[in-house]
Specification:
Helix content is 55%, strand content 16%. It is elongated, with a radius of gyration of 21 Å. The model has no long low-confidence stretch (mean pLDDT 84).
Amino acid sequence: MSLRMRAYYYAILGALGALVGWRISETFGFWRGVNVYVSDLVLGALIGVCLGALIGASEGLLAQSWFRALRAGALAGGIGLIAGAVGLPLGEFVFQITGGELVGRALGWGLFGWLLGLSEGLTSGTQMWKGAAGGIVGGIVGGIVLFILQSLLGVTALGKMLGLVVLGASVGVFIALVVVMLSRAWLEVTSGKLQGTSFILDKFMPAHGPAAIIGSSEFKADIALPDPSMAAQHARLKGADTHFVIEDMSVGLGTFVNGRKVEGARLANNAVIRLGNTELVYHERR
């Protein structure tokens, strides 16, 4: 997906995840009548796993990789389950000790968003703290809206549903916005099947961090591009703290930067990279 569309997709997926979690909790509400914290634990876990799985899987789905979508969705869903199971009861506790005030609801959902945002860093190319920061902001904003809606509509099924949908959308959109605004480097696909898709490279930029492998194999490459003329592992991007160096791994197929075949080259902003029949543009923000 493009950086511009990321917030839109994350908002839709966040709202859908919260709605699905709420619907499941209403359908199988066998814990009704038990302690409010137990009820919140179950509801939070359901919302967290659904919201986390959908947001986590989005990168793989939009890159047309079912393997990556399932892997990232499972990982983010597991983190979301923990985030919801911890965040919602803790939020209820803070809500109760503050006398049922707005600050308690906002802080509780902020914790939920923070934990969920961490999963974005694990399943995408961004750094974990950026996803977490967006999650905190989204959780706080969503918690405030949830409190206002429930104050206006009452703690009814409709008020709860609308509030949770807005909360999910808020967490999703702010994770995306913060990640995009603070991203330092990314690749934009300008030709080929994934034209218009962008891959954030931030977590690969530290000099002592992992390298990013670009290739056609979704099992062997960090950035997988469906191009039969590309090697399974075609090129390697190695971070140097302030920039990236690209190295050819294609064994004869060639890696081209700005029309020149290279074995290795330092990438500058707006450099055009060609691998097989796919062109990418490298962007960096100082």
